[in-house]
Amino acid sequence: MLNKLNSRMEAFLSPTAIFLAQFSLGLITVMILLTVGDVFGRRVLGSSIRGAHELQQMCLMSAAFFTMSTVTMRKGHVTITMITDFFKQAVKNWLEVIMWTIATLSYVLLGWRLTMMAVHLYETHMKTAELLIPEWPFLGTLGVVGLTFQVLACLLNVLKAVEEATKK
What we know:
The chain has 168 residues and is mainly alpha-helical.
């Protein structure tokens, strides 16, 4: 039962997470070009690109949030196993279930607070300082898209860990 659910979730999440990661690479490319153009304009032409810092900030935040689910699915996070190396495999499996459950709940909480912040920015009509771009759609998109896929990726890892822990 869990194996079938894991397969379906992974079939949905994997291509989407890869797309978001590739989109993030595009955003990082935009950041690099924006930085080069800004420095070139400032040094050679005597004028920098207006709002370059704000655009780079938005690109960097998007890239970070959109790549989290890919890293989570690939289990590419740094792990320190100094203490758990002494435990039996069954204990390690259940610790992994607990760890992924805590991670999932943490990202749910982060997504909720990020969404509440986006609502606050909408209600107060907050805009960026230089380009006057409304901040709420940007932050809301990060909260809804980036963290939704991160929560789903963590949930997939919870299910995989439960399946591994309950094997006989």
